[in-house]
Specification:
CATH class of the largest domain: Alpha Beta
CATH topology of the largest domain: Rossmann fold
Number of domains: 2
Structural class: alpha/beta
Strand content: 5-15%
Distance between the termini: 39 Å
Length: 399
């Protein structure tokens, strides 16, 4: 039985969207070489506190979360020798991913067209704020601005409050996921054709697509979606409620579940009331229904209602803090939080791979690297350089 060679990924990305993508490819078994500028590296290395490790092994929690399963190589792309080394590495790689400003890779002679002439099988992915064409292509794109421009902020927050952003850089994360699947699709196509291709993924496009039913509603109904706080525009009741001790979340997805809900809160008549008998009616008459449900839920602690809902087959759960969520027994059962060993021998907890594959399980093979931790290793292994040649590069500040 032949063993398929490990996929080689050359990673020129930094901050979040690109590193999410390359981390996932690393989780699935790829050998990811993260190319970073000497001395400073990825900007997120400095986005602390908090920190994991200490001294030379210290890593910001931000960098730590999306850079496992990668090897770090420092390379100065401002120098011609650095670009020449990058080209040699690119011509040995299956996938190259970058998120520099539009046109930067071409200025260095490291763009897809330049590399594909000598490496037709290369899959080259560019991640940017607005894509490689269009009137905004040359604008910088950061998550908070993308959330604002894409309409996500306009639908997030209380109905009578200000638009607000999601509490995590969701546009970046979604873009990283889209980029990962697009790269995998390009690799599958290469299996058939023998040729790679160029993949163009934008934060703005990704976030618009991630509006899913909200964007569809706006296109089909030609109306402007509003904000519903913790409620749902198209399903009722599907929101948070205040119980006697704390709030909880309830998601009633169909009319059968609504009837069961009415039964266990002691309000069976609501299920047969023409105003609430089906979901379109409940959406239309939510202002009449929700206060009646709220009154019922205020009579008992949250856990009482969560247990009753789950017994009736209705999704419900507490509104956890992040710490409470990480401490949930389900997290331990799934092995989602893992301990990794840093370069100084200390350990730190890390949310690990999500997808659990039976044949080739995803695993944390490498802890997030210190800056340039694998420079000499990569140069020896990939470019067959000896100590003298590597030392000369270091003295000239190229690595």
């Amino acid at each position: 039985m032949s063993v398929r060679p490990q996929l080689r990924v050359l990673d020129f990305t930094r901050v979040l969207a690109g590193p999410v993508c390359t981390m996932l490819l690393g989780d699935y078994g790829a050998d990811v070489i993260k190319v970073e500028r000497p001395v400073r590296g990825d900007d997120t290395r400095h986005w602390g506190p908090p920190w994991a490790g200490s001294g030379a092994a210290r890593l910001s929690a931000y960098f730590f979360c999306v850079n496992r399963n990668k090897r770090s190589l420092t390379l100065d792309l401002q120098q011609s020798e650095g670009r020449a080394l990058a080209r040699r590495l690119a011509l040995q790689s299956d996938v190259l991913i970058e998120n520099f400003r539009v046109g930067q890779m071409a200025g260095w002679g490291l763009d897809y067209e330049s590399l594909a002439r000598d490496h037709q099988g290369l899959v080259f992915c560019s991640i940017s704020g607005y894509g490689q064409k269009g009137p905004r292509a040359h604008e910088p794109g950061y998550d908070s601005v993308i959330q604002a421009q894409s309409g996500l902020m306009a639908i997030t927050g209380e109905a009578d409050g200000e638009p607000v952003k999601i509490g995590v850089a969701l546009s970046d994360v979604i873009t990283g996921l889209y980029a990962t699947t697009a790269i995998q699709a390009a690799l599958l196509q290469r299996e058939r054709s023998g040729r790679g291709q160029y993949v163009d993924v934008a934060l703005f496009d990704s976030q618009l697509a991630a509006l899913v039913n909200i964007a569809s509603n706006a296109l089909i109904d030609d109306s402007e979606p509003g904000r519903y706080g913790n409620a749902h525009p198209s399903i009722v009741p599907y929101q948070t409620f205040a119980a006697a001790d704390r709030a909880f979340s309830l998601a009633v997805g169909n009319d059968r579940q609504f009837a069961r809900l009415c039964a266990f809160i002691g309000r069976k008549e609501l299920a047969t009331d023409p105003r609430f008998a089906d979901n379109p009616s409940r959406v239309k008459n939510r202002e009449a229904l929700i206060p009646q449900l709220a009154t019922a839920f205020g009579s008992q602690p949250a856990q009482h209602w969560i247990d009753a809902a789950l017994a009736a087959g209705i999704p419900a759960g507490p509104i956890n803090t992040v710490g409470e969520a990480l401490a949930d027994p389900q997290v331990a059962a799934r092995g989602l939080v893992q301990e990794v060993t840093l370069s100084d021998g200390s350990t730190a907890p890390l949310v690990g791979p999500v997808a659990q594959l039976s044949a080739e399980p995803s695993a944390i093979r490498h802890a997030p690297p210190t800056l340039g931790q694998h420079t000499e290793e990569v140069l020896r292994e990939r470019l067959r350089m000896d100590d003298g040649a590597i030392g000369a590069l270091r003295r000239r500040g190229i690595v």
